[in-house]
Amino acid sequence: MNDRRRWTWAGGLVPTEVPSTDALVVDSWLLDRGAVRGLRRHRARFTRGATTIARIHESSVDRFWAAVVAELPLRERWFPRVEAHADGSLVFWLRPAPPPRPETRLWIPAEPVVRNHPRIKGPDLPMLAELRARAQDTGADDALLLDESGCVLEAANAALLWWRGDHLCAPARNLPVLPSVTVAELGIPLSEEWALTADLEGTEVWAVNSLHGISPVTGWTGEPGPALAPVDHDRLTRFRDALATAPTYVG
After folding, report:
1. Hey, how many other C-beta atoms are within 10 angstroms of the C-beta on 137?
2. β-pair type (142-146, 104-108)
3. What is the DSSP annotation of 180-238?
4. pLDDT-derived band of residue 3, with 50, 70 and 90 as boundaries?
5. How far is the C-alpha of 78 from the C-alpha of 96, rounded, in Å?
6. Using an 8 Å Cβ cutoff, are 33 and 74 in contact?
């Protein structure tokens, strides 16, 4: 791996500057000493978006992906990102991974968030980045997304799950949420709910994504949030360990 940190696809990976256009589709994952959770799922999610939104031929995406995987480093922690752009370009960006976040505070905005492509990662990222910046201005880590009826959807940068007794719950699948690779990697049945924020009263809530894994939600800013149950640290440790036991090695 050379010293450059961004490449574009031109029948091979060529060092490049930051493209002038916003990415239409992106995906990213944690690479920890050559190990990745759910790499095939990340590939499928990115390919679906690149072929439908950016209208790039699947064979081009396949060759690009193979070249990216061949270049992934086997040491240290990284947060690679792949992008598909409106001009048909495919971009690979290698970034050092920040430390995992042990817990999460969420900002509850006063208004619902309406996205154009909630099931594709990329088209709405500029708006979500702005929401996250507003959340951080209040002392939170991320923003809670609600639909027009007040149903809990996800965070701007994470899926949301919550516990009712021994049942792990998620937003109903017909709600506009991004398919989460990390949630899929948990490999357990989920109870689907249409939950308002008040319905989370007394539950333990988890923010889940590829970078931070499972991060319990421990507080709210912005609009009033529900009182949450204390974190069950033994259960949290079991699930974190389970995620760590079956990675894909890219070497």
Report:
1. 10
2. parallel
3. PHHHHHH-S--EEE--BGGGGTT-EEEEEETTTEEEEEEEEEES--PPPPPP-HHHHHH
4. very low
5. 4
6. yes
